[in-house]
Amino acid sequence: MAAPKGHKPPGGSRKGSPNRITKALKEMILGALDDAGGQQYLVTQARDNPAAFLTLLGKVLPTTLAGDKENPLQTVSRIELVPVEPRPRA
């Protein structure tokens, strides 16, 4: 029988409890990043695949920013990716 309108059915995880699948997936992704070369791998991706790298950057940057009254945050109006000379590969 369905739950009455306006009421959630019982079940699921408790409010505020971490999602185990998300935690396990995050650990696997971070492990793969470490195996691929960590920060240097990300630098390579920023150069070789800037669109994908900037998409990743957009997902990990905080979505809300806070400032204080004495030092308000400045509005970012433009972010520009500037090409740099590639380093010789070892």
Question: What does this 3D model show about the protein?
Answer:
With 90 residues, this protein is mainly α. It has a domain at 20-60. It is built from three helices and no strands. The protein has helices spanning 20-36, 39-48, 50-60. The termini are far apart. 0% of the residues are buried.
Tell me the layout of helices and strands:
Blueprint: H1 20-36, H2 39-48, H3 50-60
What's this model, at a glance?
The chain is mostly helical. The chain has three helices and no strands.
Short descriptors:
90 residues, flat, mainly alpha
**Amount of beta strand:** under 5%
Instruction: Tell the overall outline.
Output: flat
Sequence of secondary-structure elements:
HHH
Could you name the ranges where pLDDT drops below 50 across 5 or more consecutive residues? none
So how many helices?
Answer: 3
Which structural class should the secondary elements be placed in?
mainly alpha
Helix content: 40-55%
User: Sheet with the most strands?
Assistant: none
Q: Rg from C-alpha positions? A: 21 Å
| Cα end-to-end separation | 65 Å
* Average pLDDT reading: 80
Total number of beta strands: 0
